[in-house]
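Today's session is about reading a structure prediction critically. Students often jump straight to the picture, but the first step is always the sequence itself: look for stretches that repeat, for charged clusters, for runs of hydrophobic residues. Only then move on to the predicted structure, which in these notes is written as discrete structure tokens rather than atom positions. Here is the chain we will use throughout the hour.
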Amino acid sequence: MRTLRRRRGARDIVPQIILVFFTILALFPIYMILTNSFKLKKFIFGAPFGVPIGKAFSLIGYQTVLARSHVMVNFANSLVVTIASLFLILFIGSLAAYALSEYKFKGSGFLGFYLAIGIMIPIRLGSVSLLKLMAGLGLVNTLVALILIYVAQGLPLTIFILSTFMRQVPDDLKQAARIDGATEYRIYSFVVPLVRPALGSIGIFTMIPVWNDLWFPLIIAPSARTATITLGVQQFLGQFVSDWNAVLSSLTMAMVPILLIYLVFSKQLIKSITSGALK
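Below is the predicted structure for this chain, in token form.
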């Protein structure tokens, strides 16, 4: 019995060691950026793994960012684009997912296949066409253009996941609501809270790429008035000279909000994964 217990204990320890290893691997870059943003330049390269205390500690990077850049404008632009895109993706996606999961109509199978193709093909392959489209609509250098692109990018995966979860909602609940005289919009409002874990996970998976994206802000809205926080960091990077204090400080300021939001919604992500596994 002791030998069996030892074997079981060893089997339990191995997955824990693997999880700890990958946790350290994921947190290490965050630690490097965060700690080095509070150091003088010579300590960034001389002691990159050290803690920013004593002579190494400095706020020059944050002072440079606040003095030489429009960081608050960039931050506000990223916030507007991310929140608006996330709201439209979840709202439109949940409506479309409810329709696909609840009603069977001619072409519904093809529509589901079309959405699956949208998941597999990266939207960046159509960057040139999107730029021409936004120029024709007069939306270049506007936040509206970025929001429209991100909504189109996030809808296929959102509809695909939500429709799967909504099919698991008992039909008896929806039929009882119809018998009581509830409209379809009212039934939709009943169904959405039941798939809240899926909404939380979709929110995280959608929000992080939108916040961190550099590609579309660079080609669609590169002006100083519409630049996002990720694009604003690029002004401190040059071909021959780079202000690493300012770069690391900008990255920290851009990283902290998204990490806090991730921690808030992490429970919803875990619930979504576990509920999907049980189903």
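Discussion point for the tutorial: The two ends are 35 Å apart (CA to CA).
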